[in-house]
Write a structure and sequence with these properties.
Blueprint (H helix, E strand, L loop, with lengths): L2 H17 L9 E7 L6 E2 L6 E2 L2 E2 L2 E10 L5 E7 L6 E9 L10 H26 L4 E12 L2 E16 L2 E15 L3 E10 L5 H10 L8
Antiparallel strand pairs: 1-5, 2-3, 4-5, 5-6, 6-7, 7-11, 8-9, 9-10, 10-11
Helix pairs in contact: 1-2
């Protein structure tokens, strides 16, 4: 690499590092998660993202908030089936912020990709911490289309022994992370099911039919 290209590369990395910051939203976290009394579709107040009662046969169980202003919330969903039961949790919370200061779009895109990767690694580490000895199977880039806009995301798959429906069995867990939804929000999915259950199609149906700014089916 010649000197000019090296300087450009260093400059690009420096700009991306400069743009990457902490979230401008600062949740005041509760000592314990607090259940919210919700009937019908729940709308995340600051973002307008919806959590419907049902999506693709999954039924919502409980909506929890983790801070006083409901910036950070989650909803549990269950797909009850004798052959392919699935437990899902969907999280909405502040994504790390970007200060663009008039930066070119490609620089902002690089900074967002860097922050998404960092957030994804953090969430993977949470799973590994909660489930010691879990086996990392794979990860890959994914894409979600919402209202004509493309949102790049990350998928990771783990396997471990854990409690499920009153028994301790081999499980497969899928982690999906999307950042900068609506500009400054992160959406995280976690799906857990018996290891050998054929659930890929049902999980994809859930993801595709749940409209972040619409209603579930």
């Amino acid at each position: 690499m010649n000197a000019t290209r090296l300087l450009k590369s260093i400059g690009a990395v420096a700009v991306v590092a400069f743009l990457c910051g902490c979230s401008t939203v600062h949740p005041r976290y509760l000592a314990q998660p607090e259940p919210l009394a919700v009937r019908g579709t729940y709308v995340h107040p600051p973002s307008g993202i919806v959590m419907p009662e049902s999506v693709a046969g999954f039924r919502r169980d409980m909506v929890l908030r983790y801070d006083t202003d409901s910036f950070d919330v989650s909803a549990g969903y269950n797909f009850l089936s004798a052959i392919q039961p699935i437990v899902a949790t969907v999280y909405i919370y502040p994504a790390p912020s970007l200060v663009s200061i008039g930066s070119p779009p490609e620089v902002v895109a690089d900074a967002r990709a860097h922050l998404t990767e960092r957030e994804f690694e953090r969430r993977k580490q949470e799973i590994e911490h909660v489930h010691p000895g879990c086996v990392f199977i794979e990860q890959r880039d994914i894409m979600q289309i919402e209202n004509g806009q493309s949102y790049p995301g990350k998928l990771a798959v783990f396997e471990y022994e854990g409690a499920f429906a009153g028994s301790r069995i081999s499980l497969r867990s899928r982690l999906y992370v999307f950042c900068f939804v609506g500009g400054k929000w992160a959406i995280e999915y976690r799906f857990t099911c018996p290891k050998h259950a054929d659930t890929d199609e049902k999980i994809q149906e859930f993801i595709q039919k749940w409209r972040w700014f619409g209603t579930g089916i």
